[in-house]
């Protein structure tokens, strides 16, 4: 099905594009740029939702650790966002594509006019053959207007651009039936027909959760996307070329059904 998708939103998290050393994983970013540009060349509309502003800011400012206070995180994000976009701009340019930065908050999406402006901007970027790169506008996104995690943001972006699919790249091969860190026999769940309490519990969304770190927000994102009939795929981002396997219909990652698929 993804082979025929016209528009795909990809989301990548800080720990996929940065090493534990707090330095950027240039190999992953380069592969990602190559694959996304290639998909764009094949005629698909692609959007990248990226985290990493705070992480890259911490690196750039040579901070020992991620600031805890809001102002500190915001300051780090403003520095890191520039560095991150500079890197994406260079990497995507190698493969012949320009990128456009969109920084948004929940407020922008909830406000009808601003929402429409965002939709218009995305459309025009697609017309120009530009790859939109989105992050939350961390410098202004305080408590009441914050999405907080880019998984939810990516699902909202998928809705705004009426994507055919959302692909969330992460550090695991998908959602497992137990925590693979503590249960070596844990198996990847290839397809989730519907997000039930059991699935939420596996993702660690409840106190009894067995799940892998960070899965709860991904499962929540899949639910948001499914409300608009958009299927979500959770895929290992360590090798972005897996995206081709996914598009070729191979059994990789976890596919959350939505829309006509789930009927
Ligand atoms: N917007 C944050 C950043 O770029 C990341 C939010 C998240 O980790 O999901 O650092």
Describe the structure.
- The chain is an alpha/beta fold.
- It contains 10 helices and 8 strands.
- Strands 3-4-2-1-5-7-8-6 form an 8-stranded mixed β-sheet, sandwiched between helices.
- Helix 2 (26-41) crosses helix 4 and helix 7 packs parallel to helix 9 (215-227).
- The chain is globular and about 40 Å long.
- The structure holds glutamic acid.
- Glutamic acid binds at residues 13-14, 51-55, 77, 135-136, 138, 149-150.
Tag the structure with descriptive keywords:
alpha/beta; 263 residues; single chain; binds glutamic acid; 15% strand
Largest sheet composition: 8 strands, mixed
Number of strands: 8
Give the strand line-up of the largest sheet: 3-4-2-1-5-7-8-6
Low-pLDDT segments, ≥5 res: 206-213
Secondary-structure element order, N to C: EHHEHHEHHEHEEHHEHE
Assembly annotation: single chain
Terminal CA distance reads 15 Å
Query: What is the percentage of strand-forming residues?
Result: 15-25%
Name the shape in a single word: globular
Question: Share of helix among residues?
Answer: 40-55%
Mean pLDDT over all positions: 91
Radius of gyration: 17 Å
Q: Name every ligand kind in the structure.
A: glutamic acid
| Category from helices, strands and their pairing | alpha/beta
Helix count, DSSP H or I runs of 4 or more residues: 10
Quick recap of the structure?
By secondary structure, this protein is an alpha/beta fold. Helix content is 42%, strand content 15%.
Please give the structural blueprint.
Layout: E1 7-12, H1 14-17, H2 26-41, E2 45-50, H3 53-60, H4 70-94, E3 99-104, H5 106-110, H6 112-127, E4 131-136, H7 150-160, E5 165-170, E6 191-192, H8 197-202, H9 215-227, E7 232-236, H10 242-247, E8 254-256
Parallel strand pairs: 1-2, 1-5, 2-4, 3-4, 5-7, 6-8
Antiparallel strand pairs: 7-8
Helix pairs in contact: 2-4, 3-4, 7-9
């Amino acid at each position: 099905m993804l082979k025929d998708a016209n528009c795909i939103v990809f989301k990548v998290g800080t720990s996929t594009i940065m090493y534990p050393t707090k330095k950027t994983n240039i190999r992953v970013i380069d592969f990602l740029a190559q694959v996304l540009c290639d998909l764009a060349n094949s005629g698909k509309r692609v959007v990248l939702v990226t985290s990493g502003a705070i992480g890259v800011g911490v690196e750039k400012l040579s901070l020992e650790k991620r600031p805890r206070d809001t102002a500190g995180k915001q300051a780090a994000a403003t520095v890191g966002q520039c560095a991150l976009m500079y890197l994406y701009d260079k990497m995507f340019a190698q493969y012949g594509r320009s990128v456009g930065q969109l920084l948004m908050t929940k407020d922008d999406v909830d406000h009808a006019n601003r929402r429409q402006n965002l939709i218009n901007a995305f459309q025009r970027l697609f017309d120009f053959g530009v790859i939109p790169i989105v992050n939350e506008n961390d410098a202004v996104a305080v408590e009441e207007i914050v999405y907080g995690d880019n998984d939810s943001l990516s699902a909202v972006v998928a809705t705004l651009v009426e994507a055919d699919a959302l692909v969330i790249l992460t550090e695991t091969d998908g959602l497992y039936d137990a925590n693979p860190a503590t249960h070596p026999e844990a198996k990847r769940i290839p397809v989730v027909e519907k997000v039930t309490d059991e699935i939420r519990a596996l993702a660690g969304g409840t106190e009894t959760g067995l799940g892998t770190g960070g899965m709860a927000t991904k499962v929540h994102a899949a639910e948001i996307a499914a409300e608009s009939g958009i299927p979500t795929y959770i895929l290992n981002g360590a090798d972005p070329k897996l995206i081709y396997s996914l598009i070729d219909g191979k059994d990789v990652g976890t596919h959350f059904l939505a829309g006509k698929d789930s009927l």
